[in-house]
Design goal:
about 25% strand; 2 helices; SH3 type barrels; about 170 residues; single chain; alpha+beta; 7 strands
């Protein structure tokens, strides 16, 4: 009898545990989103593009057109202009930034700078030679540097001098 009672109790317990597994969780997930609806706000209104006109009425210069300032003195245009007709020297095809002074020589009381160009070749220059792409002329050569006078053109077409130098690279 005891064995029957234990079997009856065990079968009743098992019947009580039967059914779908996790039914309460499935019901919760199904019912939790029933009242919700997604809301997407409308996109913002796009304003049409209105181009800005650069003209004389605004008083603003057009940044996309070249602007040449008025030259006050007509005799000043082209002042200090280098000789554009002379034959170019070999080191004038290289920008000054790509040239390096790598040595100094002195022969018959004349100082020569030894320059390495960006193509790897060595060149010898002295005062009076031309160098660089800005009509640079060598002013002096010493054992530590080479002083150069360059001629650069501004936006008004005038030429001005500027001094540059190449330092000896150790």
């Amino acid at each position: 009898m005891r064995v029957a009672f234990v079997i009856l109790f065990a079968s009743m317990t098992l019947v009580g545990c039967g059914g779908e597994e996790f039914q309460d969780l499935k019901d919760f997930v199904r019912d939790s989103g029933a009242d919700m609806r997604g809301k997407v706000s409308p996109p913002p209104e796009i304003k049409p593009y209105e181009p800005f006109g650069y003209d004389n009425s605004t008083g603003i210069a057009d940044p996309f057109k070249p602007h040449k300032s008025e030259v006050k003195n007509a005799n000043h245009t082209g002042q200090n202009q280098p000789n554009l007709d002379r034959p170019k020297e070999e080191l004038e095809e290289f920008p000054l930034e790509t040239l390096k002074m790598v040595g100094y020589l002195q022969q018959a009381n004349v100082g020569y700078g030894v320059i390495r160009a960006s193509d790897g070749k060595l060149h010898r220059i002295k005062a009076g030679n031309y160098i660089g792409t800005n009509f640079g002329q060598v002013i002096s050569v010493s054992d530590s540097d080479i002083k150069i006078k360059e001629m650069v053109q501004d936006s008004a077409g005038d030429w001005s001098e500027r001094e540059s130098s190449l330092q000896l690279v150790q």
